[in-house]
Structures are given as structure tokens and as C-alpha cells.
């Protein structure tokens, strides 16, 4: 009897990186990672260097939660605490930042040009590019995610996220405190390391006269 030749099974196409995996690259949450930023504003008399640390990372399924700890020994506004913190949550829906008094999505999926969402106060966020080139003291980053935000009553801003790093550049204008800040360096600290030096620059969309 002649043997029948078996037809070769078609190869399955390589799986594309999931939206979750791509989001993880643009907004990595790594215990003990410290980001040093340089920031300045027309509202402040001096330039400052500061650091933000990731602490208390936990994961449940696809949801990762942690705390941003921000310390600033020389805050631009005396009413601002030298140490403060807030929660972050990354899931398939995006990245949510906040505490008991405020929260909003800083990034939302799907990660594609033109995708937009709104905050409760009417501020509109939009992904305008996933191919930005950003040059900051920490280095040159290609294919960055650029997110803009705008509120017709209070101002505009934009943020740039680099794969494998996170936030590398942020700009804000308008009735919110105007500022610029750039990533100066990134380092990995031992989990639980004591806060020293300074921490991240002003949080997104701080209003004039407020220490947000």
C-alpha cells in the first residue's frame, strides 16, 4: 500500500505583543526604582533636582499596584510637604494615579494614535504619537508615547513615556502651575531604601496657589 503524505500544518503567525505588555513597557513599575528629575517653572525662583521612588509593589493577575513616594527637601511652595505619596495602579485598562482625594487615568488603552479619554473636571487626554524622539539628560529615547491633555479653562500639557523607562519628559502651561521637567537619571535601589535627596517634580496639573 502506498503511504499518504501528510500535508504540513500551516505555521501560526507570531503573536503580537498584547496591549498590556506594551503598557508595561511604557509605564514599568519596579520595586526600588528611583527616577531623578530636573524641573523648573516661571513660578519658582530656582531650578530643582528631585527623585521619585516606586515602593510597595504588589500584583494580582494583570493588575499591578504600588506607591509613588515623592520627597523634596526644598519645595518651591512652602505649603508643599517635603515628602508625599500617592497610589498607582496599572491594568489592562491603563494606568490610574491617585489617593483618597483625587484620581484619574494618566494613560488608557488601547495604545493607539488618536485614542482619547476625559477626566471628571472635563480635561481631555489624547495619545498623539507612539513614535516620538525625546532627548533629555538621561539619554535619547526613540518611539516614545506622547500623551497630551487640555482643559479650555485651565491649561494644557504633554507627557512623554519611553519604553523600559517610563516618564522622561513633562511640560505644562496655563492656569495650572507652568513647568518643565526632564529625566536626569534612573537607578535601582535596594527595596526599602530610605528616602534621601529629593523627589519628583510637581505632579501633573497642580493649580496655582495649591501644593498639589
Word description of this protein:
- The chain is mostly beta strands and 212 residues long.
- 4% of the residues lie in helices and 50% in strands.
- The chain has one helix and twelve strands.
- It has one helix at residues 19-26; strands spanning 33-40, 48-60, 63-71, 83-91, 94-98, 103-108, 116-118, 124-136, 139-151, 155-162, 166-174, 179-188.
- Strands 6-5-4-3-2-1-12-11-10-9-8-7 form a twelve-stranded antiparallel sheet, with helices on one face.
- The longest helix is centred in the N-terminal third of the chain and has 8 residues, at 19-26.
- The radius of gyration is 20 Å and the shape is globular.
Q: What fraction of residues sit in β-strands?
A: over 45%
In round numbers, the mean pLDDT is: 82
What's the N-to-C terminus distance?
83 Å
User: How many distinct helices?
Assistant: 1
Biggest sheet descriptor? 12 strands, antiparallel
**C-alpha-based Rg, rounded:** 20 Å
Strand order of the largest sheet: 6-5-4-3-2-1-12-11-10-9-8-7
Order of helices and strands: HEEEEEEEEEEEE
The helix content, as a percent range, equals under 10%
* Class derived from helix and strand content: mainly beta
Number of strands: 12
**Poorly predicted parts:** 1-5, 13-17, 195-212
Overall geometry comes to: globular
Amino acid at each position: 500500500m502506498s503511504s499518504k503524505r501528510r500535508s504540513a500544518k500551516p505555521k501560526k503567525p507570531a503573536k503580537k505583543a498584547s496591549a498590556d505588555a506594551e503598557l508595561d513597557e511604557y509605564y514599568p513599575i519596579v520595586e526600588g526604582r528611583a527616577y531623578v528629575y530636573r524641573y523648573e517653572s516661571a513660578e519658582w525662583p530656582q531650578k530643582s533636582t528631585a527623585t521619585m521612588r516606586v515602593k510597595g509593589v504588589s500584583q494580582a493577575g494583570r493588575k499591578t499596584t504600588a506607591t509613588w513616594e515623592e520627597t523634596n527637601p526644598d519645595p518651591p511652595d512652602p505649603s508643599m510637604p517635603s515628602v508625599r505619596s500617592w497610589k498607582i495602579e496599572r491594568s489592562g485598562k491603563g494606568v490610574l494615579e491617585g489617593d483618597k482625594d483625587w484620581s484619574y487615568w494618566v494613560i488608557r488603552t488601547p495604545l493607539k494614535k488618536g485614542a482619547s479619554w476625559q477626566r471628571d473636571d472635563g480635561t481631555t487626554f489624547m495619545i498623539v504619537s507612539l513614535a516620538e524622539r525625546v532627548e533629555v539628560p538621561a539619554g535619547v529615547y526613540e518611539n516614545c508615547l506622547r500623551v497630551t491633555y487640555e482643559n479650555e479653562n485651565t491649561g494644557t500639557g504633554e507627557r512623554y513615556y519611553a519604553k523600559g523607562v517610563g516618564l522622561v519628559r513633562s511640560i505644562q502651561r496655563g492656569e495650572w502651575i507652568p513647568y518643565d521637567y526632564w529625566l536626569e537619571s534612573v537607578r535601582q535601589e535596594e527595596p526599602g531604601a530610605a528616602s534621601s535627596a529629593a523627589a519628583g517634580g510637581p505632579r501633573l496639573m497642580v493649580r496655582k496657589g495649591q501644593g498639589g
